[in-house]
Amino acid sequence: MIAGISIYEIFTLTSILFFIGIYGFITRKNLISILISIELILNASAVNFVVINKYLYPDLLQGVFFSIFIIAVAAAETALAVAIIINLYRQISSVEVKDTEIMKY
Amino acid sequence: MEKIVFYILAILMIVFAIASVTSRKMLRSVVYLLFVLIGIAGIYFLIDYNFLAAIQLTVYAGGIIVLIIFSVLLVHHIEMELEMAKRSKQILTALACLIGLGVFLTTIYSNEFKVVENYKTTSVSDIGMGLLSYDAGGFILPFEVISILLLAAMVGAIIIGKGEKLTKNDETL
């Protein structure tokens, strides 16, 4: 654990990061920007897992494993999302959310 | 000492996260995200999970950021400015986020955590043993499932990214 830092301060930091991510997710109009916001949200939750593991259950390692899995899933998700975005740009020449009606069908 | 480093990291991360979701230039917002991710790796270093910090730096800062920058460069002109949401919608979303943050923080601060004082470090071999153990509490099954997931994502990304026959929509290329 970090000397002099309580668990509350780290939770405050991760909550702020999480809600900044949600703000970006709602206000942005661009698929790549939405992807960036999702990365922020995922990172904030991964930090929470690690901090709870370290501060409350230091003998176990479950939080670390979950963070590793979150990072792996995030990597897979980003690769797929980038592939979809590039394919979409090829078909409709735009990555704005309002133009992507073709994905509904 | 660690206290000062943590506060500097926290302020930098919050500032860059806000800059990342409000910047109107695409590439800049990706670079701001890179700083946030490096700050999170710094937090992992501070709480003595060196292996996790190394993973964060290689997978996120090395892999995902490069991938997103690639897609930005393929899709955008660098000078192009993003269109933002309406001002009223921005304020409404910010208010909703602040209310949510308030709910989170009141819940967190009203809860009593049983913190265990400890300063032990975790070696990489412990993490490897835990990931590959068959005993109760071992993580061998999720580990294998993740490897299948990564393979499936790789194949899927190649198939989706390859797209259909290019002759059909030549004029859009």
Description:
The complex is a heterodimer of chains A (105) and B (173). Chain A is mostly helical and 105 residues long. Chain A has helices spanning 7-27, 31-56, 62-92. Chain A is 74% helix and 0% strand. The longest helix of chain A is centred in the last third of the chain and has 31 residues, at 62-92. Chain B folds into two domains: 1-91, NADH-ubiquinone/plastoquinone oxidoreductase chain 6, subunit NuoJ (Four Helix Bundle (Hemerythrin (Met), subunit A)), CATH 1.20.120; 123-163. Helix content of chain B is 71%, strand content 0%. Chain B is built from six helices and no strands. Chain B has helices spanning 2-22, 26-46, 50-75, 87-110, 124-131, 140-162. In chain B, helix 1 packs antiparallel against helix 2. The longest helix of chain B is centred in the middle third of the chain and has 26 residues, at 50-75. At the A-B interface, helix 1, helix 2 and helix 3 of A face helix 1, helix 2, helix 3, helix 4 and helix 5 of B.
